Amino acid sequence: MSRYRVSMDIGGTFTDVVAYDEATGKYVAGKASTTPHDLTEGVFAALDQVVASPAEIGFTVHGTTQGLNAFLQRRGEKILLLATQGAGDIYHIARGNRLRLYDIHYRKPQPLVPRGDIVEIGGRLNYAGEELEPLDENAIRASARRVKDEGFGAIAVAFLFSYLNPAHELRAGEILAEELNGVSVSLSHRVAREWREYERTSSAVVDAYIAPVVRRYLERLETEMQSRGLSVPLHVMQSSGGIVTAQSARDLSLQTLLSGPVGGTMGGAALARLLDRPNLICIDMGGTSFDVSLVVDGKPDVASETTFEGFPLLMSVVNIHTIGAGGGSLAYSEAGGLRVGPQSAGADPGPASYGRGGDRPTVTDANLVLGRVDPAAFAGGRMTLDREAAERAVGTLATELGLGAVALAEGICDVINAKMAQAIRTLTVEKGIEPRDFALVAFGGAGPMHAVFLARELGIREVIVPPFPGAFSAWGMLETEIRKDFSRTYYTPLSALDHADLARTLGELEREGFTSLEDEGITRATGRVAHAVDVRYVGQEYTLTIPLASATEPREPNFDKAVADRFHAAHDTRFGHANPGAPVEFVVVRSMALGDLGRIDPVRQNGGSDASFPSTTAEVTFGRRAQPTTMMQRADLPVGSEIDGPAIVSEPTATTVVPPGATLRVDPFGSLVIAAGKEL
Amino acid sequence: MATVVEAHVDTQIDPITTEIIRSAFTAAADEMNATLIRSAYTPVIYEMKDCSVALLDSEHHVLGQSAGLPIFLGNLEICTRLTEEMYGRDIWQPGDIWIMNDSYLTGTHLNDMTVFGPIFYDGELAGFAASRAHWLDVGAKDPGGPMDSTSIYQEGIRLGPTKVVAGGIQRPDVTDLLGRNSRFSYPAIGDLGAQIACARTGQDRLAAIIDRYGAGTIASAKEAIFAQTERFERAAVAAIPDGIYRAQGCLDNDGNSEEPCWVRLTVEIRDDEMTIDLSETDDARGGPVNCGEAQAISACRVAYKLLINPHNPPNGGGFRPLTVKVRAGSMLGAREPFPCQWYFSQLGLLIDLVVKALADVMPEQAAAASYGDSMVISLSGIDHRTGQSWLDLEPTVGGWGAWDGSDGESGLINNVNGSLKDLTIEVLETKYPMRMTHYGYRTDSGGPGKWRGGNGIIREYTLDGEEAVLFLWFERSKTPGWGLFGGKEATPPVVVLNPGREDERRMLKCSRVALKRGDVVRTMTGGGGGFGDPAERDPEAVREDVRNRHVSPQAAREVYGVDVRRKSGVGSRT
């Protein structure tokens, strides 16, 4: 019986489960504390709240933070890195650039492999992938012995030009498999078949670093779920926003690194379809960080590489920009001026109102002083906030700055809102996007509290708070499809392009794509492979990814002009200028294998004739004065309700603030749609 | 050192509005920067961030500056100020945008183009938007810029303040002039467009901020913001013991002679004022190691900022406690016709020397010296694979100095560059007919110390093409990265042509040296200086260094007195 489609998202504090009930057309959400000693415990505690038995699950997807946490806490595997003779320091030199320019105490991000654990191996290819020097197989065998002797848990192999000719890496992999039983090996060309040895090595190292952790975890979770009756494969969210089976995820762990957070953006893409709002700015504000991502023309903004914690990663990844602003951002005075963030009180001691010893005011404390958050209902009622402690902390700073406590509290919110809005504006300017043309989707615990203020700063007219804003990542995971990415460096001026060769290469990638979809249970009927090429003007460094119509498009007459025109148009949109006529070159070809898992078609709810709902009135500060404000529970709001601000909507995972001048409406799919209006 | 600032309450305007306006100014500068980088045509701008932008008020004070190239810090306003001095305040007209690059006015080499425009609000001059960016080529005698110029007239087109947009219309004649004077006119005109777009963004953003808050509120907020910054910096300067502190160091030569070029300075601290006096620096030189006064002041501001206020974005209240004295006619205050192409070599040295001078009284903020210069190699020729001409121009990374509590970083780009990345081997070999046969750390090149200086690198090029031409600009062999507090100095740079062969040659600077197929150029950059007595280094850290091949077993024994061959007795010294 396959009644439910279920997603599971394990966060640092809570585990969220969202289930879509095919029988009723409705969503249900469950929440439990994350159980770090054995994560499956928390998963089943939350799952039990929504689904009677795993046997009733027809589809399941999981966002894992196992790899991410191992990486962030530096708990990953001890790695031996094999590199080409003469190039072993590439990983540590890390291209030699600085990320902070006014710092004579600068250190690069601490590499995951100490220099002493990097072995240079003889064997060299040239720029065409031709062998200049054969692989030193004895050196590989010696490295295998070292792995045994010194207890390395994983090996990364990254040789020069392996993206053109993987023979040396493949042979190294074979020898290591012969010599070693079950030690995880990450070959750089398998992780990312693209040029630039540092970026490829860094990707292979992160893959090796998290692979054993991710594999062990996924195996345990899947086994556990099967033993409880689950009869369908477990799927895993990837950084690209697409999903794969747990089996595939175990083969390429790197792709699961940002598995958790990207669910929110995919949820945004689903909302874009559902609400017919193709352009969305998605904001996720939590305790310490503020994440911004974009949905443009209905599609999530996906990049083909990223830098994470200072390490470059060549993989498809939903672009998420993190800004140091959150409920825990600290307010303080410096040389007589007010500052808010980026320093954060974090979770410990946390805001003053957490009562854990923090005595400096934070954004959460400010919201509490203003009456914008219910102290008894914070974090789903799992925590009660101490309003007096917040008032004391805000009051102390207010005296120092010569302000009243309530004025300062609102000022703290105004300052952090201005900073978040400015960060969004800078991001959109970089992308060549006008924020006024977008709607704002707010989720995460603190996002809906600040969203309308941000929208007004940016000239955005509409704010959407989706159902389950605290579990939106989990909700978003239900709305995506199978995705596997393939790439090949294909460096040639367009004028010298060998059209038959490119079509042949794309044909190979297409076959590879369909074969890999079979592993995911996707047939030719439900799968498709899309192709694109990274293009730039000759002499440029940056490329733009330009879609191709098909694998055979290069054989079409006028292909060169068609693809160049597409590139000029994309360049004009992104950079504000283009130069039709200037020579362009290809750098990398990319193929994306996609498998449709069937769309959810949620039931449209109709508003009943009775639009009344229970509410109370409380004094909340807006515009430096206390105003009578309608307070209500989200669960009580019928579809079609309309409420003028000031109003505050509470639900277990979030609080939505509707200031004076804004109007809230509950749409047929249960989203809160707020017309931002103007400050009154 | 904790900075203690007396509580001070501004009564003119509330601190909330002030802080919102302060972040709006910074955000406006960030947006100008995003516009410039988004629209620029050349990687040196959008990839290496060899650019800077500033939003100024009508009195040429910085409202916001983005973190661009450090040595452009605080000298964009000099361009608007000088233009006004030359032509009077009435020269500013709505819709105009100007360009200039004269080395003696802007301080930099001619490749750095500053583009700026007035901002009017309700018919009144409200401020200026300015950007500076490095152009690939401005028509010097050699592509990109010469290494052996003897006068400014060999270094390219030279512009005083020139109107490039008049009343909102880009002037075709000036644009044409600029295009005709570059070997790469297409990207030059593209980058000009990007800088014009950047100025317009600044004009729009400042107008929007005034619209929102009103000119009166902005004026009060601005005074409060400047006062906060000034108070913060004065408190930091006041915490430094009064006194006169000195440092000196030399460049190896000026590129055209063998004489060292001395930079000498004193830093005087008196109460909450700092004066950096550069008067004793050598006279301007016949080779291209000179700069205009404006750039010497900028370099002093960079050093000051590194020590006094590294974390806050710069604004017009900054640098008020700092006075810089430059002697006209010196290397740092060059006059026509002294050449300025390599204007930054002595400025990197100058920044390190200010830190050195103050190290005794600011031991926590100080660091030992870095490897010191951009260490540029240029190779060019015809690619036998394609028949096309090629040019590879690369700065080289090196070691940075240690400080109290940490070893220095190894293989990092020098302080006068932006966020420059090295060229990967795979891209290099694909684009140019060369093989990179070695790229790695140079063991033992960092200065020993309780905290060890970072290591330089070895980068070895083998020519696969039939012939090529080599240019080199490697520096600081006579003043390698020095140590502090008993830390030792680093190993200087070395470049060897055809190592181990009969025709082996060593050199650091050269122009137009002919190479043949199979020739090898091995460049080795210096390390950073050490901090503290090497005898105090934790023996386990020395063993770790040997395991990681940063220090050789021999140096461990001879310099640190740690015998790594002994397996037992961790921590034993011989």
Keywords:
heterodimer, A: 680 residues, alpha+beta, Nucleotidyltransferase, domain 5, Rossmann fold, Dna Ligase, domain 1, six-stranded mixed sheet, 28% strand, B: 574 residues, five-stranded antiparallel sheet, 20 strands, 28% helix, globular, disordered N terminus, disordered C terminus
Q: Give me the CATH fold name of the domain at 77-199 in chain A.
A: Rossmann fold
**Any idea of the CATH class of the domain at 77-199 in chain A?**
Alpha Beta
CATH architecture title of the domain at 77-199 in chain A: 3-Layer(aba) Sandwich
Distance between the termini of chain B: 37 Å
Low-confidence stretches of chain A: none
Q: Helical stretch count of chain A?
A: 16
Mean pLDDT value of chain B: 92
**Percent helix of chain A:** 25-40%
What's the Cα radius of gyration of chain A? 26 Å
The fraction of residues assigned to DSSP E strands of chain A is 25-35%
pLDDT under 50 segments of chain B (min length 5)? 1-10, 567-574
Name the assembly state: heterodimer
Topology, number of strands of chain A: 35
Largest sheet, strands/sense/barrel of chain B? 7 strands, antiparallel
Distance between the termini of chain A: 54 Å
Annotation, overall tally of beta strands of chain B: 20
Strand content of chain B: 15-25%
Q: What is the SS-derived class of chain B?
A: alpha+beta
Biggest sheet of chain A, open or closed, and with what strands and sense? 9 strands, mixed
Can you give a write-up of this model?
The complex is a heterodimer of chains A (680) and B (574). With 680 residues, chain A is of the alpha+beta class. Among the domains of chain A are: 4-71 and 215-256, Nucleotidyltransferase, domain 5, CATH 3.30.420.40; 77-199, Rossmann fold, CATH 3.40.50; 482-595, Dna Ligase, domain 1, CATH 3.30.1490; 616-675, no CATH class. Chain A has 16 helices and 35 strands. In chain A, the strands form nine sheets. In chain A, strands 13, 14, 15, 20, 23, 24, 31, 34 and 35 form a nine-stranded mixed β-sheet that branches. In chain A, strands 3-2-1-4-11-12 form a six-stranded mixed β-sheet. Chain A has a four-stranded parallel β-sheet with strand order 6-5-9-10, sandwiched between helices. In chain A, strand 9 (154-158), helix 5 and strand 10 form a beta-alpha-beta unit. The longest helix of chain A is centred in the N-terminal third of the chain and has 31 residues, at 197-227. The N and C termini of chain A lie far apart (54 Å). Chain B is an alpha+beta fold and 574 residues long. Among the domains of chain B are: 15-229, no CATH class; 367-537, no CATH class. Chain B has a seven-stranded antiparallel β-sheet, sandwiched between helices. In chain B, strands 14-15-20-17-18 form a five-stranded antiparallel β-sheet, covered by helices on one side. In chain B, strands 8-9-10-11 form a four-stranded mixed β-sheet. In chain B, helix 1 (15-39) packs across helix 7, helix 6 (185-213) crosses helix 7 (215-238) and helix 8 (293-308) packs parallel to helix 9. Chain B starts with 14 loop residues before the first helix and ends in a 16-residue tail after the last helix. Mean pLDDT of chain B is 92; it is low at 1-10 and 567-574. Chains A and B meet through helix 3, helix 7, strand 22 and helix 12 of A and helix 1, helix 6, helix 7, helix 8 and helix 10 of B.
